[in-house]
From TrEMBL:
Record-annotated HD domain positions: 43-147
Origin: domain of life: Archaea
Organism for this UniProt entry: Methanothrix harundinacea
Matching InterPro entries: HD/PDEase_dom, HD_domain
Pfam families, per the entry: HD
Name listed for the protein in its UniProt record: HD domain protein
């Protein structure tokens, strides 16, 4: 999805929801700055993909689109490199940066609270069941970007950044051991990615996840076929 497309979407959002006229290009550029220094699996291109997922789900699920769009664009903004920073520090900085951004752009207090809630509970590692439709949509949209072809790419992008071995040579597919993705890159499929399809909240999210889940399982099957002779 190109930036020009997102500029047009934000202009429509501004005309419909925000109180004062503003330059939509400036809004997007300012949001992009909040992703400076992020690791490549959680950078602004990730935010744009999550935005695209969230917009598709939100429109089909009759959600409050101002909340959905702003939460998606800002959901990983404001913190440091996710692979390095401690979770509590990262979370506090992120929420403060998101709230400051929303205030500067004259977003109403009611919408700010909904956006901040969605951003706060979206993370898989927190294990929080979201209560609002918009927060459920953000979780679904973010998790969709962790599966399918892009999910495979992000797994190995992250593993390379952390200098993790590709797989456990004795049991690559976790058949006789618990997955440990702090040691083996491929274990992340079994610790997290293969579970995401069943955890989707919305009907649209479930439908999109089924398609991407097929891609994950096919990749693992193809990988096993290719490496099995060396095991």
């Amino acid at each position: 999805m190109g930036s020009d497309y997102l500029y047009r979407e934000l202009k429509l959002l501004a005309m419909k929801f925000l109180d004062e006229a503003f330059d939509e290009n400036s809004l997007l550029e300012e949001a992009k700055l909040l992703y400076d220094g992020k690791d490549p699996a959680h950078d602004f291109s990730h935010a744009l993909r999550v935005y695209q997922n969230a917009r598709e789900i939100g429109e089909r699920e009759d959600a409050e689109m101002q909340v959905v769009i702003l939460a998606a664009i800002l959901h990983d903004a404001g913190s440091g490199p996710k692979l390095q920073e401690r979770a509590a520090e990262s979370e506090a900085r992120k929420l403060a940066a998101v709230e400051d951004f929303l205030i500067r752009w004259n977003v109403s207090e009611g919408v700010r609270k909904k956006v901040l809630y969605a951003v706060e509970v979206h993370s898989f590692s927190k294990g929080i069941e979201p209560e609002t439709l918009e927060a459920k949509i953000l979780q679904d949209a973010d998790r969709l970007d962790a599966i399918g072809a892009i999910g495979v790419a992000r797994v190995f992008l992250t593993g390379g950044a952390l200098d993790r071995p590709l797989y456990n040579p004795e049991d690559p597919f976790c058949r006789e051991r618990e997955p440990d993705d702090s040691k083996w890159n491929l274990d992340h499929f079994y610790r997290k990615l293969l579970k995401l399809e069943d955890g989707m909240h919305t009907e649209t999210g479930k439908r999109l996840a089924r398609k991407r889940g097929i891609v994950l399982r096919r990749y693992l099957s193809d990988l096993e076929e290719e490496i099995s002779k060396g095991i």
